[in-house]
Amino acid sequence: MAKDYYNLLGVSKNSSEEEIKKAFRALAHQYHPDKKSGNEAKFKELNEAYQVLSDPEKRKKYDQFGASFEQMGGWESATGGAHWEDIMNAFRQGGARAGGNFGGNEFAGFSFDIGDIFSEFFGGRASSSSMSGASRSRSSRGRDIEIAIEIEFLEAVTGAERTLELKKFDKCSRCKGNRAEPGTPLITCKECGGRGEVSQTRQTILGVMRTSGQCGKCGGEGVFPKLNCKHCNGDGMERVAKKIKVRIPAGIQNGEAIRISGEGEISENAARYGDLYVGVRIRSHHKFKRDGDDIHSSELISFTQAALGDKIRADTAHGKVELKIPAGTESGTAFKLKHKGVPSLRGGGEGDHYVTVKIVVPERVSAKAKKLLNELKEEGL
Ligand SMILES: [Zn+2]
Ligand SMILES: [Zn+2]
Question: Which residues form the J domain (predicted)?
Answer without folding.
Answer: 4-66
